[in-house]
Structure formats: C-alpha cells, structure tokens
Queue: 3 jobs
Job 1
Amino acid sequence: MEPKKNPKADLTKNSGMYFVIGLAVVMLIIWRALEWKTYDEQTTYDVSLNVEDMLDEEVPMTEQIKTPPPPPPPAAPEIITVVEDEVEVEETVIKSTETSQEEEIIEVDDIAVEDVEEDIDVPFAVIEDVPVFPGCENEKDKRACFNDMMQQHIRKNFRYPEIAQEMGVQGRVSVMFVIQKDGSIGNVRMRGPDQNLEKEAERIISKLPRMTPGKQRGRAVRVPFSIPITFKLQ
C-alpha cells in the first residue's frame, strides 16, 4: 500500500504564525464584545401645552369689593324731665369751705390733752426708785436693803419638801415675779429640776409682804424681779 502523504510536505511550517494570528483575532472579537453598547429606543413626545386652546376660554375678571364700615351706634337719647311751672325745684347749694371772720378759731394751746397712763415694766436693775421692802424705809441704799431682806425672808420661810428629800432631789429653782403698782406680788413663775421644789419656791414667794411700789419719773410702775432659790441636801 502506498502512502498518501507527500513526504516533502512540512505541515509544521508557519504554524507559529498562524497561532499568533488566530489569537489576535480571538482577542479582537472578545474586546469588541466587551465594548459593545446597546441603547434603548427613545420616543419623542410633544410635551408643549396647547396655549391657544386655553386662551380661547373667557376668564372672568374679579374685582375687590370694598365693604363699607358699619354705621356708628345711635347716641343715647337725653332724658329731659319736663317740670311744670308751678312746681318749685330745689337748687343745689355749694357751701364754701373758707372760714369767715365771724367764726371763732380755736388755738391749739387751748385744747386740753389728757395724759394716758401706760402700764410699763421697768426692770429692778435700772429703775430710778426701787420698791421699798418693809423695814428699809430709812435706809440710804434701798436697793441693797431690798436684796438683804429678800434673803432673810427666804431663809426664814424655807422648808425642804419631804418627798424631794426621800427621792434625793436637789437643785436650783429660778423664781420670777412682778411687784405691781400697788406693791403686791403677782405673775409668779418658776423653773426648776422638780415640781415639788417649784411648789415650795412658790409658797415662799407668796408670803412676801406688800411693798412700796417702784417709781419711774415719779410714777408708780411694775417692777419685774428674779431670784434663785437653791435646794441642797446635807
């Protein structure tokens, strides 16, 4: 059997060039495919308004109507009183505020002013004339004599409460009272550690005699006075 292929034919000749050309063609086709652009079909419409049709219509013209202001309210009718000729009408007489020479003018010095006595309290330490304790009338220092007589009165009438002794209660009771304008003792107040001691201090003060009241500027006044009474167990 004879071979059909020509032994002189070289099939591999120019194969490299053909490969390169084919590759270039393929790359060109791929590039054109990637760069290919498509556009949607555009339809143009006439969007202009038909102005002529709109102008054919008659547009009514409007005018601003001015409303007249409301009329003013009618004035209130005057009340006219008809008076008959026979009726007498009293006329209003306006008296003058000026004084006449016939009126008597009272001078200020002729008006008597009554002195109103006010109840005032003047403390014992600052009063001009201190209250006089019975027995101190002839003493020069009536203030010192008053204090001495008060101490003598407390010692003379002092009595320790039995209940306070049994309970062992002791302490100081502050006593406040007022020597009234008539010399009597009033408004007695106590403050101490025990009620029994306070009652005993009140009993002692209640036995004070009537005194000569204190005076301020020659007038009798009320004089507050305070003194401590000490209760101490031995």
Job 2
Amino acid sequence: MQIGNRSGRLVLIEGDRALDVERASDGAFGPDPQDAYERWEAFRQWAEGQDASAGEPFDVAELGAPVPRPRQIMAIGLNYADHAAESGFDLPENPVVFAKFASSLTGARADVAVTGDQVDWEVELVAVIGTGGRNIPEAQAWDHVAGLTVGQDISDREVQFWGNPPQFSLGKSQEGFAPVGPAVVTLDEVDAAADRSDLALSCTVTHPDGTSEELQSGRTSSLIFTVPDLIARLSKIVELYPGDLIFTGTPDGVGIGRDPQVFLQAGDVLRTQIEGLGEIEQTFVGR
C-alpha cells in the first residue's frame, strides 16, 4: 500500500489514482494525512482491505509531504563509507545524528530556492515510524516501521559550516530542503518489488541548457548503520513517535566532495529515485 497527501488530504495511491480515505471510510478516519500514523495499527488494518485503484485520477504535483507534521526528523550523517571518505572523515563508531526541522518539509514536486552559492544534494532513504517506543530491539525494529519513502537532504553548505562546530541542522533546514515522497510505501509492497535492505538509489540533475548528469548512485545495502540498527540505537536515547522520519544517510557523489566542488544553480531540476519507492523532483529557483 502507498499512503499519500493529496492537496492536504489523506489518500491511498495506486498508479495514477488516489482514494480519499475520509470518504472511503465514511469518516472513520479523518482527512489529515498525519492521523494515519497516530492511529497506525487501526489504519493499516482498514487500508489493507481497500482498492485504491477505485480512486480518482490525480497529478503528482498535487502530492505534499506524505507525513506533513512529524514530531521528530532525525538525519544520519556519514552513513556510507564512500561518503565518509569523500568528506574527509573516518568511519563513525556511532551514528552521526542531526535534525532537519519540520518547516523544511515539502512534497514530491516543488520549487526550492537556491539560498546561497553552495546548495548541495543528498539522496536518502527515509524510514517512517508507525509504532513508536523506547529501547526497541534491533530484531523487532522493522515491526515499528510504517513504510519507506524517497528523500533529499538538501544542504546549504555555507550555513552548515558557519563556524566551528558546524551548524548542521540549520544548514539543512531552509524552506523546501526536506522534500519527501511521493508516498510512504509499506514494507509488504516494498518486498514485493525488491529487497528492502538492498534498494538502488540515485539522483540526476538536468541543467537549464537541457544537459543531464547522474550525481549519485548507490545501494542501501552499503549503509554502515542499517534501518533496524538505527532504530535500536536511537530509541535507546530518545522516544520514537508515530510518524517520525529518519533520513538514513547518503552515498558518495555530493557536490562539496568533488574537485572542483559543484553546487546547484537556479534552473536546475533535481530528480531523485529509489527502487520500489518512486521519484521526487525539485526545480531550483533564484532567491
């Protein structure tokens, strides 16, 4: 099943059709996309019996962030060995954790302002918590995941490295810097298409002159700290809540790690794909 946010309303998605949950459930579930995660088990059981193909046609541009108001957005740095190397760091012994603030969320299609001269890209698998808790055992961690989605950890490197120590969270929380979508895909649907622990992920840019290039390409099997490991480690310290987002890290190929460095410019179109989860697209515009 795919859970989406169509113009601010909770929907189930199949192909190019979206089933409005409030109407299909006769009001048993409300229109707010966030409510699906607050009542996760009841919602999941109801939704599994629905035929989303009976819904209305929709345009991907109508899709907002599928989890619009998470209580926590945690992001993991240096979680691929090649990215740690290009960043000049040793492999971390523990997850490197920072926050992306909820005001930076946007959906599958969005215009994003180029806020400076060093705006960078980072394709990321995002795990969405369904059942929260503390001290979640790694062996049971997947049971706490509602689904997976595509994310971009867009970063203003000038703000990120304002001082010593750097401002990771601020540099990654400008408006539109946390695009996610197009939908939250439940694990059963992911498993039907691919191996949830070994998903191909990539991003490409198309420049205003029409030329395109692949920026990043990797597989989630290369994660240093896997999704279950992250959930177990994080939940030892903080309580995880339904609807929380965990950005799991990016492979190598970011702009700041190149020689010479390369960054996004106004007019660039960034497309981000993850196997079994779909694609998101951002168009970068001037300030």
Job 3
Amino acid sequence: MAMMVSSRSSSWAALALLLFVSVAHTVAGADELSAGYYAKTCPNVESVVWSVMASRVGGGRMAPAVVRLFFHDCFVNGCDASVLLDATPFSESEKDVEPNTSLTGFTVIDEIKSVLERDCPATVSCADVIAIASRDAVTLLGGPTWNVPLGRKDSRLAARREFTRAHLPSPNDNLTELIRMFGELGLDARDMTALSGAHTVGMANCMHYRGRVYGTSNTKYNIDPSFAESRRQLCPPQGPIGDAGKAPFDVMTPMKFDNAYYRDLIAHQGLLNSDQALYGGGGVDNLVEMYGTDGDAFGRDFVKAMVKMGNIPPPKGMPMEVRLQCSKAN
C-alpha cells in the first residue's frame, strides 16, 4: 500500500502526537533539548521558519537541499551548524569538501536567521534553524511532521577537511561501511535504513552514479538494465558536462516524500551504489521490503531516526555560541 503523503492526513497527525513524549530525549552527553526551548525567549520561532520555508522553498527542489544540509551537518561533529561556516584565513570550511561542494540551501537558512535576529536577537541558534527547516522541508514535500527538540548551540569552528571527508558517507559505500558510519553516531541499522529514505526526493550529480550505470565502479550491485540505460542518457561515460547531469533518486515521484525509494531498491533501480547496498541479500532486506509496502511504518521510523540524528551532540569542549550570522563566528 502506498504511503499517505498529505501532511494533513490523520496518520501523520497521529504520528506527531505519539512521538511528542519522546522527542526531547537526547543521546548521552548532550545538553537537554526540548521542543519548548524557545517558548519564552522566541515563541514565534517555528512560525517564522515555516513562513520562510513555505514562501521560498514550498515543494520545490530547494526542499531536499535543506534536508541534505541537516544530514551533512549532523554527521560531522554533531548538529552544530558547522557546515554553514565559510572559510577564513585561519580556518577551513566544510563546504569545500566533496560531497559538500554540491550543497545548496544556504541562502534559505540565512533568510530565516535574518528574520529571527530581527524578532529575537541573539537567541535562536543556526543549528536549531537547520533542524526545524529540515522538518518543514519534509512536510512541504508531503511527508510527516514532528516536534523538533531545540536548544542546540553553534560551533565556532568548522571541522578540518580530512575529518569532514572521512565522516560523510560515500556514494559507493557498501552496507557494512554504512552500518559502521551510522553506528559511530549512535544510529543503528534500522535508523540507517529509515534515514536513507530521504533519497525518496532530490537528485544526484552524474559523477556520483556514473560508475553504477556503466558498471565501472569498484562496488557493484545488480541494476535493472532498462533503468541503467535511461540513466546513461543523462550521464555520458566521461567529460565535465556529464559530471553536472543530474538524475532524480526516484523517477516516479521525485518531489513527493513517500516510500517509493524502497520499491525502487526492490526493483534494482537504486541510483547510487550506496542506495542499492540496502537491498539484495544484505541484513536490512526485510526493512526495505516493509517500508516499501507500509508507508506509515517508514514514516514512523524516519521521524524517530531524524530526532535521534538531530540529538547527536558536538564533541565535549567544543567552543559553542549562538551565531548572529550563520556563515561566520561572532
């Protein structure tokens, strides 16, 4: 049965209520986060984020980009908005490291932050803005909504390039490597499988799927021949033009947050090797099959995993603050 994708559906509303009691729980070592953190200091924070997201992003292509920002932030030194920092003469930027070089959505976050600085100066962290905005992006694409635990602070420093590169999953990672990388962040195989469902929306550059569709990557998984041929039409075997050619992760409903991604995997139509790694004889086949047939089960597990990922704290001793501008330290 296909996922019910309306953000106003009763199933998603019930999901939000069921999860309310658990969203404020954080991983060990993190400062306590709470959905009501700004109730007194900036009570309109969520309405501001929603307003900007609805007007600037809507259900368009920028919505998946905002969700991707949240993932790439949390995977490197926790959810501290370090991915937003520009390089300076004294520090590197996570933006300059592949695959972060293709990140977008920064202007949307900056616009939200600008409005909040006018309404609630020096109060709402950029890390919290990303967390709320990524939730709203999912909802605007027809997916679930949930209560976002808040109270994060912003790092004053970005991670070094080598560290950033080592802590972001690769398009050619196998299942063992994916489980390891997620596990180091306190996310188990079920969390990993559910979070991978974010690829039900958005697109990937040719350079990331070329090896899969031409059968030239070191990591090879079964691929539907007609699917491979259609992707090759967008992605020449070599050359800079091909590197820019984008393809949707899910051909049928590329801008709808549903469970079609998992049905694509079952049909061996995963765009990246790291997508198809989830299905085809591995240890999470049962989860892929369940999510592919039960959209509500996917929605429940995705929300739980998003909250869990959003609770990953920065390292102890990291200099933190509430940035006034998301692209630079105060």
